[in-house]
Specification:
The chain is elongated, with a radius of gyration of 23 Å. The protein has a two-stranded antiparallel sheet. α1 packs across α2. The chain is mainly alpha-helical. The longest helix is centred in the middle third of the chain and has 20 residues. Among the domains are: 35 residues, no CATH class; 33 residues, no CATH class. The N terminus is likely disordered.
Length: 116
């Protein structure tokens, strides 16, 4: 049985976007948010959000390139993940350190699951 969703934020991420915008720019007034939305629409809220700078995009791209290189270059045995609702089967690489075995990994998972 899947755990119940206990988050108080429904409609992520727009719930937080609207809340943050309201707190920072409209003195936490829901009436002011409604007036702003009535005048500017959803596009107005979208345009009010900060955009990444070129420097931020460079860091995001560098992080992605490094992660892609690590995924391709580091050794590891390939395993198929579960079939997604769209029918895709993700392929994962399992990397084991010296002395690690599948049995050790299973014991660690069981300890974690039982709070040991």
């Amino acid at each position: 049985m899947a755990p119940a969703d206990t988050s108080s934020d429904s409609g992520e991420p727009w719930n937080r976007v609207c809340r943050t915008f309201t707190y920072l720019h409209l003195d936490a007034s829901l009436l002011a948010l409604w007036k702003y939305y009535s005048l500017h629409g959803l596009n107005g809220l979208w345009n009010a959000m900060p955009r990444p700078t070129p420097d931020a995009w460079m860091h995001i791209a560098a992080f992605g390139a490094i992660q892609a290189a690590l995924q391709l270059l580091l050794p590891g045995k390939e395993h198929n993940g579960p079939v997604t609702p769209n029918g895709n089967v993700p392929v994962y690489k399992v990397r084991q350190g010296p002395g690690d075995s599948p049995e050790t990994a299973m014991r660690m998972r069981n300890r974690h699951a039982h709070g040991e």
